[in-house]
UniProtKB/TrEMBL annotation, chain B:
Keywords of this entry: DNA-binding, Phosphoprotein
Protein name, UniProt field: Response regulator transcription factor
Database matches in InterPro entries: CheY-like_superfamily, NreC/VraR/RcsB-like_REC, Sig_transdc_resp-reg_C-effctor, Sig_transdc_resp-reg_receiver, Tscrpt_reg_LuxR_C, WalR-like
Domain HTH luxR-type: from-to ranges: 162-227
SUPFAM superfamilies: C-terminal effector domain of the bipartite response regulators, CheY-like
Keyword DNA-binding attributed: yes
Chain segments annotated as transmembrane: none
Coiled-coil ranges (or none): none
Top-level division of the source organism's lineage: Bacteria
Pfam families per UniProt: GerE, Response_reg
Residue ranges constituting the Response regulatory domain according to the UniProt record: 14-134
Residues where 4-aspartylphosphate is found: 69
C-alpha cells in the first residue's frame, strides 16, 4: 500500500485546501451547529461577568488583586450548559490551572463571605484580603463599593465547606471591620461638614443593607437545604434580622433627609421619593439577582427536559412499538424484516435526514418531494414497506422534479413493484444517475432497477399483464424517454429507464 | 483476547474487530468463526470497544485486517485509523458501519480505509470483503460507489481539476463504478465491459487511491453539502 506517507494529506499536494478537507469548517458561511450554542450562551452569563467587571472598574480597585481578578473568569460557576462547557473544555483544561472558581464562602464568614471567597480564589490568607478591602476604603470608598458589588454578583459556594474559624480570627476580622468603618467615617467627616452629614446616615444605611443581604444569603442556603424545620425556626429570627436591617436603612435615609430639610419643600419631596426608591432597590437587590438567575436556570432545565421527553416519546412511538410488533410476528421472517427495515429507515431519516436531529434539526423532514432523489427515495420506501423486499436506492446527482421526471419516478416505481412481486428476489437494486447537460448535449436522468430473481421471457408475458407495457413503456414514451429491458429465465431482470432533462433545472 | 499460535505458515486471515457495541462484535465474531467453507479461513484474534483499546490492540496483535466501526466515542474509526497508521501499522482497514451518511463514508475512506461496507451486509459477503481487502483490493459497496461517482462528477460550475492524475476519473473507472453502484458483482462487471476481473480490481483500487488522495475542492464541498442517508 502506498499509505505510510499519506498520514498527513494536507502536507502534500499543491492543491487548494491547506488543511484536511474533512476537518475544514464549511466555507460558505454557514456555521456549524455547535458554534451558535456557545456563542448564544455568552450573553446569558454576561450579567454576572459584567457586574464583576463593574466592580473592577471602581476607582483604584484595578490595582487590588481581589477586585481585579473576578472579572477574568468569564463563566466560573456551573452556569454554562454542557455544550458550552464542552466547547470551551479543551482550551480551558490547558489554560487554567486548578484554581477554585470565585464563590463566596458560606461557612466561616464574617459578613458576606466575599473576602474569604476571594482569598480562596487567589490562594492567599484571608486576612490580607480583608486588610486590602479596609485599605481601599480610604481610596474613594472603593473597598466598600468593591465588596458590595462582589457580594451581589458572586454566588455562594454551592456545597458548604467545613471551616473552623478561631475566636482570635473572628475578633481580628471584627476589629478590622470596625476599624475600617470608623476610620473611613473619620476621614470622611474630617474632610468637610457636608460629607460628614452624608457619611453618617448613609453609613448607617449601608450597615442596614449589609444585614439584610446577609439574611438573603441565609434564606438561600435554607432554600437549598430544603429543611422545613430550619426554615420555620430561621423564619422568625430571619424576619427579625431583616426588619432590623430595613429599619437601619430607613433610619439612615430618614436622618439624611432630615439633615437636608432646609433645602425646600419641592426638593425635599423629590429627594424623599428618590430615597425611598433607592432604599427599596438596595434592600431587594439580592432577590432581584436571584430571580434573574433562577429564571435562567429554570428555562434551561425546562429546555433540557422538553428535549428529553421528545426523544423518549419518539423512541416509544417508533422503536418500542416496532420491537413489540416484531416479537409478535417472530415466526414470519418476511414480516419481521419488513418491520425492521421500515423502522431503520424511519430512524435514519429522523437522525441523519434533511433536518434530522444529528444535523441539529428537529427530525422532521421538510416539505414534500421537490427533487428526483427525494422522490425516488420515497417510492423505494413505499415498495419496501408494501412488498417486504429490501430496496436500496443509490443516487448520483439530482434534479428538480418536473412533469417528465415525475413520470420517470412513477415508471421506476412500477419497475420496482414488478421486481418485488414477480422476481422472487429479496433485494432490489436501484441506481439513479442524473447527467447534467454538457456542451451541446442535453442532460439525462437514468434509473436502473435490477433484481437477481428468476427473470422472465418478455415475449411470453400474458397480454393481461399490463404493468410493464402500460405503466412503464407507454408512460416513458409519452414523455420522450426510453426503456430497455434485459432479462432471461434465471438471470434476473434489469430495467433501464432513461429520460432527457429539460434544459434547465439540474442541480 | 486470545492469540492463537501461528501454525501451518499463517495462511489464515487474522481479523480484529473494533466496535463499541459488544452485541454487534459478538454477532460478527460468531458469523466469521462459523466460516463459509472457503479459504483462506478467517480467524478473529481480538476485539476492541474503544478508540484507545483499538489502537493498542492493532499495535500489539498486528492483525491482517481490522474491521472498523465508524461511529465511536472519542473520534471514531477515522481517529483509530489516524493513530494506528501514525504508529506504522501494516494492518488493512475495512470500515463497517451502520451509517450510510456521505460524510462518514468519505471521511473514513480518506483516512485510509481500504473499503466500506454497511452492517446489514451478510456474513458471507463480509467474509468475501475481508478476503478482498486482504488481497490488496478495495471494497466498494454500491452506495460508496455512488458517493464517489457523485463527488467526482463534473457539474456545471465545478472548479476545474487541479491535478488530472488524481482529480478526475477515467471513463473506464467511471463505467466500473457505475456498474458497482448498480449492484453488479466484479465478475458481472468484467463480463459487461469485456475486461478481466483483475482489470476491474485494478480500476477500483485506482478509484480508491484517487478518493483518498485527491485534494479536489469539489470533493470536500461535496462531502459536507451532501446530506444523504
Amino acid at each position: 500500500m502506498e499509505g505510510v506517507n499519506r498520514t498527513d494529506p494536507p502536507a502534500r499536494g499543491p492543491a487548494a485546501p491547506a488543511e484536511p478537507w474533512w476537518v475544514r469548517p464549511r466555507t460558505d458561511g454557514d456555521p456549524g451547529a455547535t458554534v451558535p450554542v456557545s456563542r448564544a450562551e455568552a450573553p446569558a452569563d454576561g450579567a454576572g461577568g459584567g457586574g464583576r467587571a463593574g466592580g473592577g472598574s471602581a476607582p483604584a480597585a484595578g490595582a487590588e488583586p481581589g477586585a481585579g481578578a473576578p472579572a477574568d473568569p468569564g463563566s466560573p460557576h456551573p452556569h454554562g450548559p454542557p455544550a458550552a462547557d464542552a466547547a470551551a473544555g479543551q482550551s480551558a483544561t490547558t489554560r487554567l490551572p486548578a484554581r477554585p472558581t470565585l464563590t463566596r464562602r458560606r461557612s466561616g464568614r464574617m459578613l458576606g463571605g466575599v473576602a474569604g471567597g476571594v482569598a480562596d480564589h487567589l490562594g492567599v490568607d484571608v486576612r490580607w484580603v480583608r486588610a486590602a478591602f479596609v485599605a481601599l476604603t480610604f481610596v474613594g470608598w472603593a473597598g466598600i463599593l468593591a465588596y458590595a458589588l462582589l457580594w451581589v454578583f458572586v454566588r455562594q459556594e454551592s456545597a458548604p465547606v467545613d471551616r473552623t474559624v478561631s475566636r482570635a480570627e473572628q475578633l481580628q476580622a471584627l476589629g478590622l471591620l470596625t476599624l475600617g468603618i470608623g476610620l473611613s467615617l473619620v476621614a470622611a467627616t474630617s474632610g468637610s461638614v457636608v460629607l460628614g452629614w452624608i457619611a453618617g446616615p448613609l453609613g448607617l444605611a449601608t450597615v442596614g443593607a449589609a444585614v439584610v443581604w446577609r439574611e438573603a444569603d441565609e434564606a438561600q442556603r435554607r432554600r437549598w437545604a430544603r429543611d422545613a424545620r430550619t426554615r420555620v425556626v430561621g423564619g422568625r429570627a430571619a424576619l427579625l434580622r431583616s426588619l432590623l436591617g430595613a429599619g437601619l436603612v430607613a433610619t439612615g435615609l430618614a436622618v439624611f433627609l432630615v439633615g437636608n430639610l432646609d433645602l425646600g419643600q419641592v426638593r425635599f419631596g423629590l429627594l424623599a421619593a428618590l430615597a425611598t426608591l433607592l432604599g427599596v432597590a438596595v434592600l431587594t437587590v439580592p432577590w432581584w439577582v436571584r430571580l434573574v438567575r433562577d429564571l435562567g436556570e429554570e428555562r434551561r432545565a425546562r429546555a433540557v427536559e422538553a428535549e428529553r421527553m421528545e426523544i423518549a416519546a419518539h423512541l416509544h412511538d417508533s422503536v418500542l412499538q416496532t420491537l413489540a410488533l416484531i416479537q409478535r410476528q417472530a415466526g414470519d421472517q418476511r414480516e419481521v424484516q419488513r418491520l425492521a427495515r421500515g423502522q431503520e429507515r424511519e430512524l435514519r431519516s429522523w437522525l441523519y435526514g434533511p433536518g434530522g436531529r444529528a444535523r441539529g434539526g428537529d427530525g422532521v423532514a421538510t416539505g414534500t418531494d421537490t427533487t428526483l432523489a427525494a422522490a425516488i427515495t420515497r417510492v423505494a420506501a413505499e415498495v419496501e414497506d408494501t412488498y417486504a423486499v429490501a430496496v436500496g436506492p443509490v443516487l448520483v446527482g439530482d434534479a428538480e422534479l418536473d412533469a417528465d421526471l415525475r413520470a420517470l419516478v412513477l415508471a421506476a416505481r412500477e419497475a420496482m413493484v414488478n421486481a418485488a412481486k414477480h422476481s422472487g428476489a429479496s433485494e432490489v437494486d436501484v441506481y439513479v444517475e442524473v447527467e447534467p447537460a454538457a456542451e451541446g448535449e442535453p442532460g439525462t436522468a437514468e434509473v436502473f432497477v435490477r433484481d437477481r430473481g428468476r427473470g422472465f421471457d418478455p415475449d411470453a408475458v400474458d397480454g393481461d399483464r399490463h404493468g410493464l407495457a402500460d405503466s412503464v413503456h407507454a408512460r416513458m414514451e409519452r414523455h420522450g424517454g426510453t426503456v430497455r429491458l434485459r432479462t432471461g429465465a434465471g438471470e434476473g431482470t434489469e430495467v433501464r429507464l432513461s429520460m432527457p432533462l429539460a434544459q434547465e433545472g439540474t442541480s | 483476547m486470545t492469540e492463537t499460535a501461528d501454525t501451518e505458515g499463517r495462511t489464515d486471515i487474522r481479523v480484529y474487530l473494533v466496535d463499541d457495541h459488544a452485541l454487534f462484535r459478538s454477532g460478527v465474531r460468531a458469523e466469521l468463526d462459523r466460516g463459509d467453507g472457503r479459504s483462506p479461513v478467517l480467524e478473529v484474534v481480538g476485539e476492541a470497544g474503544s478508540v484507545d483499546e483499538a489502537v493498542a490492540g492493532v499495535g500489539h496483535l498486528a492483525p491482517d485486517v481490522v474491521l472498523l466501526d465508524v461511529h465511536m466515542p472519542g473520534g471514531g474509526g477515522a481517529e483509530v485509523l489516524r493513530r494506528a497508521r501514525a504508529a506504522g501499522t501494516e494492518s488493512v482497514f475495512l470500515a463497517l458501519s451502520v451509517s450510510d451518511a456521505a460524510e462518514d463514508v468519505i471521511s473514513v475512506i480518506r483516512s485510509g480505509a481500504r473499503g466500506y461496507v454497511t452492517k446489514t451486509i451478510s456474513g458471507r459477503e463480509l467474509a468475501d470483503a475481508v478476503r478482498r481487502v486482504r488481497a490488496g483490493d478495495a471494497v466498494f459497496s454500491p452506495r460508496l460507489a455512488g458517493f464517489v461517482l457523485d463527488a467526482f462528477s463534473d457539474r456545471p460550475g465545478a472548479a476545474p481539476p487541479v491535478d488530472p492524475e488524481v482529480d478526475q476519473l477515467t471513463k473506464r473507472e467511471r463505467d466500473v463504478l457505475r456498474l458497482l453502484a448498480r449492484g453488479y458483482a466484479y465478475k458481472e462487471i468484467a463480463g459487461e465491459l469485456f475486461i478481466s476481473v483483475k482489470t476491474v480490481e485494478t480500476h477500483v483500487s485506482s478509484v480508491l487511491r484517487k478518493t483518498q488522495t485527491s485534494n479536489r475542492h469539489e470533493l470536500s464541498r461535496w462531502a459536507t453539502d451532501r446530506r444523504l442517508v
